[in-house]
Amino acid sequence: MRGLLLIVCFLGIAIQGISQGIVFRNGSFQDILRMSMREGKPIFIHISKAGDKEGDLMEKNVIYNKKVGDFFNANFISFHVDADKQEVLPYKQAPEGVHYWFLNEWVEWIDRAEGYKDVKDFIALGKAILDKCQKRELLGIQFQNKNLEEVLKVARKEKKPVFIDVYKIDDGMCRTMEKRVIRDEKVGEFFNAHFLSIRVDVDKEENVAVLKKYGVSKGMYYLFLNEDGELIHKTFGIMDTGDLIFEGKKALEKYGKL
């Protein structure tokens, strides 16, 4: 009985120690992308292989360190990958050794690193990644972290129409639009000046009723509403920067502000 209690105590201490470090999320890579979009955090992918010396040292001294855990859990969606299980990676081949990949929700590279790093250097790496993310987020259309009802309240106060980017997180064309058009400086200047913008995930169950109201059942739709939530313009598909600005101008004409 005493031996059993000692084992239970030991396991409790071990679990407590692990819980102080980075918490790695469960699920598929697509699940991780959705978590990143929902929580507004970049993705940290820790790639290691059993028996790798640097990887084992990182787990022992850094990955489950409390300071590291506090910082990464607050700022990243973390995902652990066993290099031997390459099917869970967003790319074809896992690298050798211990690697750290940082991506945004659209699978765009932010940065990458490898090898052993102490606690101070590893947190410094994370801070540098966040700085790059903040600079990138200032580019292009600025999406508000609000649902439709919340943004319509703001629209009524500011007398502005609403732009909705209806996306599907695992759609390649949506990713192309994000990289080449949505984050474009001229597109951002135009939309930020004239619209309140939000994003809606077509795969989220809570969005089905709202999208059905506007006749939308898939991603790559762009909706323009007045402050009462009435549809004034709708367009669909991949386009270039000039096309999206042109569609925005058509919406403003219908709204009566151009």
TrEMBL record:
<dbReference type="Pfam" id="PF13899">
    <property type="entry name" value="Thioredoxin_7"/>
</dbReference>
<dbReference type="InterPro" id="IPR024705">
    <property type="entry name" value="Ssp411"/>
</dbReference>
<protein>
    <submittedName>
        <fullName>DUF255 domain-containing protein</fullName>
    </submittedName>
</protein>
<dbReference type="InterPro" id="IPR036249">
    <property type="entry name" value="Thioredoxin-like_sf"/>
</dbReference>
